[in-house]
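User: Working on a comparison across species. This one is Ig-like domain-containing protein from Muntiacus muntjak. Can you predict its structure so I can line it up against the others?
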Amino acid sequence: MGLLGLLRAVIASVCLGSIMAQKVTQNQPEIPVLEKEYVTLNCAYEADSYSYSLFWYKQPPSGEMIFLIHQESYNELNATKGQYFLNFQKATSSISLTITDLELEDSAVYFCALRDHSDAGA
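Assistant: Here's the predicted structure for Ig-like domain-containing protein from Muntiacus muntjak:
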């Protein structure tokens, strides 16, 4: 097995659509992994409302932002999509992304983002 390029998790603080205070924190450094293995990236967040969405994106070396998967706060079932699996823990305000069957194309910067729905009726 060849060494997969470094996967990097970075601190991302993203607020989409609300002026209320929110915080998203990722504290993991670059993570070297092998092809066909898996990696788990962690994200902690603070939300000011009961209803919100959490998103994961990746940014490969080419620079574009690619949407991967999302989780709604009201959904108790963890979202899955292809090689992406979420572990959503509302009680501890955390969500982790596990990526399985890693390939060289998975080498990227990964971002966790939060959208608060408190302004949905505005």
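For your comparison, note: The radius of gyration is 15 Å.

User: Helpful, thanks.
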